[in-house]
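User: Can you write out an input/output pair for a complex, sequences first and structure second?

Assistant: Here is one pair. Inputs:
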Amino acid sequence: MRIIVAIKQVPDRDAQVRIDAAGKWIEESDLQFALNESDAYALEEALQLKEKHGGEVVVLSAGPERVGQTIREALAKGADRAIHVACGDLGARDALGVARLLAAAIKPESPDLVLTGLQSEDLGFGQTGVILAELLGLPHATLILHVDVEGSDSSQARIPQARIKVKRELEEGWFQQIEMPTPAVLTIQSGGNKLRYATLMGIKRAKTKEVRQLIAAELGVDAAPVVILDRLTLPQKQKSTQILPGTPKEAAAALVEKLKFEVRVL
Amino acid sequence: MSGILVVIEQREGRIARISWEALAAGQRLASQTGSSVSAVLLGADTAALAAEVAARGGAKVFRVEHPLLAQYTPDGFCLALQQLIQNESPAYAILPHTYQVRDYAPALAARLVQVLISDVVGIGEGPIFTRQLMQGRLNGSYRHTGSGPCFVSVQAGAFRAEATDATTAAEIAVFTPAIEAAQIRTIPGQSFRGSSQTVDLGSAQLIVSVGRGIKEAENLSIVQDLAAALGAELAASRPICDNGWLPMERQVGSSGQTVAPKLYLAVGISGAIQHLVGMKASQCIVAINKDPDAPIFEVADYGIVGDLFEVVPALTEGIKSARQ
């Protein structure tokens, strides 16, 4: 089967984010970037499906040149090839605008499955996969932990009539099985699999794998946003936190006092 | 185009609090924009719930009923709501930000060439919708510019649901959408519990909870020692359980357990929204984290900014001596 995994490069979660001078976005110049975590789980699920059923895994990412680094990492983990939608104004597009770019890149590939993480760590909309399904006219399910392909035959690269059974996470420790035909779009929740690391051999091989560049402006999609991010601000504290200062030993001793005399749990 | 539609979600024939909060958000928006609020229920038979919703006032309660809506499917809900929205032309559609809404609302909005403003925590004049970015480190103010309805989903706990004051009950109307069985492409199964839950964090008085800052599974012993010294249950944020370092049943957050202990001591937890919703009702929250800007400090009563590998062992020793 052909699986497309839509991945996003996001600021590293330990990065100190600062609001830029215009107050509209974050200062990107000194940021470290990484693969969005739930997208890493989507990639892992795709690689495991390929190992079981054959076919190929294509990673797809939109963004500026720096996104190439994250794409190479995905190729090093085992994806077969990649599509990079070169786009310098990703932040100016809304969720529909970004999904339109990805859908335009996906359509000519006629994949059996499109996987993506359930939400990004930067904007956190949690919508790209669901909008993709709508734009591509495909069935979908979200928050998926596991995918079973039925009626699969590993000798065939493509499985036209395959159905899938997926395990969907519900709230508060509940789950649900959902069945649907392929092609389909799934958003993947973290924790369903153990993530693999790239091997040295994988890193070497990644250098020779195909990364096709598409130019966002040439895809003929509407970029005008319906929803606009006006301003970024620092959140207001919900409580006044008492920070206990000093060396680790002093701070720990101060906390013991608080636990004993204020919180009264000792 | 006018009015506000609020989608009320039912689970097993009950209305969860987050739906009342969505209704409260709708009422807030109505008072700002001078318009009226109508509620929407979807299902095969919503008569009993509709009466409960109507008692809270508002203009109308729409019972969107069809046998194919008996069980939730994204196709069924999108088709039904699309038809209701095209009929009523509301200016706003407000939804609770639940797993179910996340599953269909982005597609519904896209079908109407709109974009859902998801996980909103505040509504200001304009209206401006506030939502969190960068794992809760920043707030973003969003504005809708499209000509169609503006779709908004609201975060659990962000708006106060008041058992209101309605003097007159809302009018109840039945809306029957046209849905064919063949239009529903997914087959949902019954929901089931994961592993049998043997750890009931919900009744724990003291909880020591560990997050990504612990770095390696081998380092867990220092928080286990702290929990033992305190006599606390050990809990974790999602990444720790995703990695298999602690069992899933020890996870606190939107996908795990919701807790409200006397003391919640968060070690190396940055405080992503999904975690905070599971523990912010705790009576006393203590956070130990190396990042002074970590969102966990926004809800903490006491904080120590520092290296947990130095602070936690010192704290364990301090607690042991205090207990002697």
